[in-house]
Write a structure and sequence with these properties.
With 516 residues, the protein is mainly alpha-helical. The chain has 20 helices and no strands. The protein has helices at residues 4-52, 55-72, 79-87, 94-123, 127-156, 160-183, 192-213, 221-230, 232-242, 247-255, 258-271, 278-293, 297-324, 326-331, 341-366, 370-400, 404-428, 435-456, 464-482, 487-498. Helix 13 (297-324) packs antiparallel against helix 15 (341-366). The longest helix is centred in the N-terminal third of the chain and has 49 residues, at 4-52. The protein starts with a helix and ends in an 18-residue tail after the last helix.
Length: 516
């Protein structure tokens, strides 16, 4: 029989899990709200920027960003995932390695800047491109430092200040880019707003980390070396994933043209909106799964399945909006970018698959199978994807001319993501899906097929905006009618958020005198 103490312990554990889950929901909504604002700013600035820049200039801007980012992957050090897995359980551990890791990144930056200089001298890039790459190099260092700082705050569960910081710094970035475009300043100035916004974010993040978790700048190289060794699989995984969209653009610029990069980047800047939930996945889901992993693998599997269900419910309709409205969205960028319409359609399914692989990767990591994630990521991002690009980009560029090379890049990335998704789901096995998830995926697929069929037949005579509005309305009606999305579950999430992480009050215990 269960004793009173055992029953009390079980109730306490249930209480703790409920509190963690509701806190995660609250943090997710706070971060999601700030991300919606920042993505809205980015979505508004990009079309304005493309009106001031030709596809070639826009391509040069994005190529320089990707080129510098490939080099600065070395400064990742695997800290983000390590922090989310370990600091979530031991917040005081952050001060053991934070100071030395920052110094190590500064040393790496000096080395990497020298490497960038040598490569660009060998390529005989013009001075304007070199200056742009160097400024982006400084930006990449700040981005990596901010990612670690943010991971600390996410692990602690203190995200309100960070949410405000995201919005403020995005305003600085957007306003700076717009000013550079309006004033017609030289191309290297386009990277300056990135540096300014990231520098402000770093200052705010450092202040918040000191206040909320007592972070101390202490240099302890032996402790940091241990952290780097433990974070090696996370570093290799992050390095592989960071090349997606970066290495592709670098290859496209070398084997195609900067105009091809401009069209591809224009489509990417729109389809990338579907990645708005990506940070929420890492900031909220990983700490929650980390704590669940300390209790049981089954609990981690349940969280993973529900996360898959939730992200598919959000990303699939976003994908449909992008596919059906591709001419409208590309039209916002200006008439010079019309060749990006089909590129946008090719890119849109990528993000649905990416969310599936991210969730699978989180499950594998939290169940101590991180080297499987590392091996799969290296195979896909550093072997399969570059090989496909090297084959498809020159072939399609030679066969179809303008837009062909960019199509080869989009197809390569999509094929790679399909292969990775199959491998990841296969490794999870029965832990990946349950009947509930499969049924909802099937119902969602039926609605999507029906919408596409209507778009090609009954709704074809309508103009773009009315057709898109009708299709979006039909999608909502369809998923609700078939039960692919449950309104009650959505309301439950809202109620959890309104309670701000506090569990429902437990019923009062009435003292009863023992029977005589």
């Amino acid at each position: 029989m269960t004793t009173h103490s055992e029953s009390s312990q079980q109730n306490a554990q249930e209480h703790e899990r409920s509190h963690e889950a509701m806190g995660a929901v609250r943090n997710g909504l706070q971060l999601g709200g700030s991300l919606l604002v920042t993505y809205a700013i980015a979505f508004g600035i990009r079309p304005l920027l493309t009106h001031y820049l030709s596809p070639e200039a826009f391509g040069r801007f994005n190529w320089a960003d990707s080129f510098s980012a490939i080099f600065f992957i070395a400064t990742n050090l695997g800290l983000e995932m390590y922090i989310r897995k370990e600091v979530s359980r031991r917040p005081e551990h952050a001060s053991d390695f934070f100071g030395a890791s920052m110094l190590l990144r500064l040393i790496l930056t000096v080395v990497l800047m020298g490497a960038l200089s040598l490569v660009m001298a060998w390529r005989e890039d013009p001075p304007e491109m070199r200056a742009l790459v160097y400024v982006f190099g400084v930006a990449q260092l700040l981005v990596m430092c901010n990612a670690s700082m943010a991971a600390l705050l996410h692990a602690k569960g203190k995200v309100a200040g960070l949410s405000i910081s995201n919005v403020v710094t995005k305003v600085v970035w957007g306003g700076g880019l717009l000013a550079v475009g309006v004033l017609g300043l030289p191309l290297p100035w386009l990277a300056v707003p990135v540096v300014a916004s990231e520098a402000i974010k770093l200052g705010i993040g450092w202040y918040l980390a000191r206040v909320h978790m007592g972070l101390v700048f202490r240099v302890d190289f032996p402790a940091t070396w241990k952290v780097c060794k433990a974070g090696l699989p996370y570093f290799l995984t992050a390095a592989a994933l960071a090349t997606n969209g970066r290495l592709d653009i670098m290859i496209l610029g070398m084997l195609g043209s900067h105009e091809e990069v401009g069209w591809y980047s224009a489509a990417w800047s729109i389809s990338n909106v579907t990645f708005a939930l990506n940070p929420v996945m890492g900031w909220v889901l990983l700490p929650l799964m980390s704590r669940a992993a300390a209790r049981s693998e089954e609990e981690v599997s349940i969280i993973a399945r529900r996360a898959l269900e939730g992200t598919l419910a959000v990303t699939v309709p976003m994908m449909m909006l992008i596919v059906m409205g591709a001419p409208l969205w590309i039209g916002l960028l200006g008439r010079d970018y019309s060749l990006a319409v089909n590129l946008l359609r090719l890119q849109s399914p990528l993000f649905v698959l990416a969310f599936v692989t991210m969730t699978c990767g989180a499950w594998l990591t939290m169940t101590n199978r991180e080297w499987w994630v590392t091996g799969t990521s290296i195979f896909g991002s550093l072997l399969l994807n570059p090989l496909l690009n090297l084959l498809l980009v020159p072939w399609l560029y030679a066969k179809y001319g303008d837009g062909g090379g960019a199509a080869g890049t989009a197809i390569s990335l999509l094929l790679m993501e399909v292969v990775i998704t199959i491998i990841m789901l296969g490794r999870m096995g029965r832990s990946a899906v349950d009947r509930r998830l499969l049924v909802r995926v099937a119902k969602t697929a039926v609605v999507c097929v029906a919408i596409v069929a209507l778009d090609r037949t009954v709704l074809a005579p309508l103009s773009d905006w009315p057709r898109l509005i009708v299709e979006a309305s039909l999608y909502v009606v369809g998923v609700l009618a078939l039960g692919a999305v449950k309104p009650g579950e959505v309301l439950a999430v809202v109620k959890l958020a309104r309670r701000r992480g506090n569990p429902e009050p437990e019923p009062a215990v009435v003292a009863v005198a023992p029977a005589p």
